[in-house]
Amino acid sequence: MDQGDEALPLSCATPEGEAALRLLLTRFSVSPKHLGEPGPTEDELWTMAMAALRAPDHNKRIPYRFVVARGEALERLAALFEDYGRRRGREGADLVRERERAMQAPVVIAVVARIDPRDEEVPAHEQWASVGGAISNALTALHFMGYAGKMVSGVRASDPAIVAAYCAEGETLVGWISTGTPKGPAKPRGEVDADGILGTF
Ligand SMILES: Cc1cc2nc3c(=O)[nH]c(=O)nc-3n(C[C@H](O)[C@H](O)[C@H](O)COP(=O)(O)O)c2cc1C
């Protein structure tokens, strides 16, 4: 089934619901290298955060936070990535590429998880599920506001020096949502077998 298919059997109570669902079904990730200005404004980022808070969250633990970088803060992130590359023996053009990795999208939002493994009511896997829901809602909200984005982790998200720049004790750097305006139309990366995820008990 093609998620963007006009012929989807949508049955919504309201035209607003149908429009929102159609828009949701056209969300695809767009790599940072295909993103440019403008990025979301401060107000739009608050809206994104409010949407993240609408994710299901057992006992409202809010086991995540977002850390926004734009402008000069992206320079600091670039320096962190450059340092990462240098520590891995990279030099010259490879080091420049490390810097550029941080500077492609106009806004880069780190996702920091704060999972409490000793929580007696909400086990860790439920807290992680909320983190995933928050990421998804954030990306959807950005899409609804006309932006595109992609969540990436990669090896840098587990580098101790980069983690230390973002996280306090007990926190996990999940990765970064890069966001901005897509330079071209967003396209799905291949067919997804939706039939395989919906069964009956
Ligand atoms: C927590 C998390 C980390 C991810 N890390 C990466 C990554 O490092 N590199 C990557 O190419 N995709 C990564 N992805 C997947 C992309 O964000 C994206 O979902 C995938 O490319 C599929 O594209 P789609 O969202 O258009 O279906 C990650 C997704 C999540 C939720």
User: Fraction of residues in helices?
Assistant: 25-40%
The domain tally reads 1
Radius of gyration: 18 Å
Could you give the distance between the termini? 22 Å
Main sheet specs: 5 strands, antiparallel
Average per-residue pLDDT, rounded, comes to 93
The rough form would be described as globular
Number of E-state strands:
5
Structural class, judged by helices and strands? alpha+beta
Look at the structure and give the CATH class. Answer: Alpha Beta
Please count the helical segments.
6
Identify the notable features of this structure and list them briefly.
about 200 residues, alpha+beta, NADH Oxidase, five-stranded antiparallel sheet, 6 helices, 5 strands, globular, binds flavin mononucleotide
